[in-house]
Amino acid sequence: MIRTYLSLSVTTVSAASAVAAESSGETTFPPFDPGYFSTQIFWLLISFGILYFVLSRGILRRVGQILEERSDHITDDLDKASRMQSQAREAQKHRERALTDARAEAQGVVEATRQSVDAEIKRSIAAADAQAGEQAEIAEMRIRKMRSEALSRIDEIAADVAQAAIEKVAGKSVTVARIKSVLN
Amino acid sequence: MAADGEGKRIDPISQFEITPMAEWKVGSYDLSFTNSSLMMLIAVGLILLWLFLSTGRRSLVPGRWQSIVELSYEFIGNMIRSTAGSDGLRFFPFVFSLFMFILFANMLGMIPFFFTTTSHIVVTFTLAMMVMCLVIGYGVYRNGWGFLRLFWPSGIPLAIVWFVAILEVISFMSRPISLSVRLWANMLAGHILLKLFAGFAVMMVGAFGLFPGVFGALIPFAMTFALVPLEFLVAFVQAYVFALLTCVYLSDALHPGHH
Q1: Alpha-carbon span B166 to A4, nearest angstrom
Q2: Which of A23, A116, B16, B83 could cysteine-pair with A30, CB 3.0–4.6 Å?
Q3: The pLDDT value given to residue B136
Q4: Contact between A67 and B13 using a beta-carbon 8 Å cutoff
Q5: Do A63 and B33 touch (CB under 8 A)?
Q6: What stretches in chain A show pLDDT beneath 50?
């Protein structure tokens, strides 16, 4: 098997070398055949010329435009995005300022309300105090009057008692005025 | 021997033969339309069709096809910018056409029974000469006599600068040869190898019948299987190398002073 393989490879090599030997003779190695040089060069120049012409005039310019448009678009979008971002930052700042303002205002309202409520409470306490003091004074005055009344009637009662006692004890009638002058 | 008939059938050279499809002679020049011309036109047609259809909608958000076009556009653009600088972008259509033409010609050659235009030294040499003519023409147009500074490196002692200048001239002269032979030899060798191994597998079966022949065909078949992706890679890499070297040479035309 191996021997036949080897002998076959030998025949192929010899066939190839036979071709090579032939090429030096009547049939030339095709890539070196000068008979076809002119047609090869001519058609290569024609086809490459067409390719170059169409590419340089049309298609490559179009591709370049597409890429340029895209990069323009992207830079535009990036610009827009950064502009919007700065706007958003501005809005955020604005909002924060509004928030702090509102907070301060709310604090002020709370303070004012507290003060007014405090003042009202003080006022009503004071009013209640004043009323209570007034009533206490009125009551005191009444007590004082009642006491002085009572005290003034003590003299009369004492005089009455003394007149009655004198009548009973001494059997004499003495006038109340007399007794009063004696007592005082 | 039966192997003689088999040997003819797997001749790896016959795939490079040119067959005229329409004879046309102008004076002493043969300008016949051949299978090679057909493949060139097919390559050009495919490139144009591809680019035209996939950029037709000009969408802002690219679809799959359009982004392939855009990727290759940027790929070539970056290649030029990194090797020849931004002023090299004036050659963008040329480098793009060159890269796409070679790439499509190489790739079309990978389709079985299709002719590989880039496997002919005339074709690759003509492409290389186009590059060299552009380099010299633009270099002289832009720099005048200053273009000769390309061969006169600065900062080298006068005693040996002559020697260096001669070397520079020789290396400049050999550029079209190395440029064309690199592409051509790669395509030619790859296709010969593919044909040889694939033909070998077929020959094994032909010589020994299906049963024992299959085992003999196993190794060449595996080789073919491994070579196909390699050849696709080579087809791309060679187109890339050709375009890249074109950019490097164009950079010389743009800035002959420093290198």
Answers
A1: 55
A2: B16
A3: 94
A4: no
A5: no
A6: 1-25
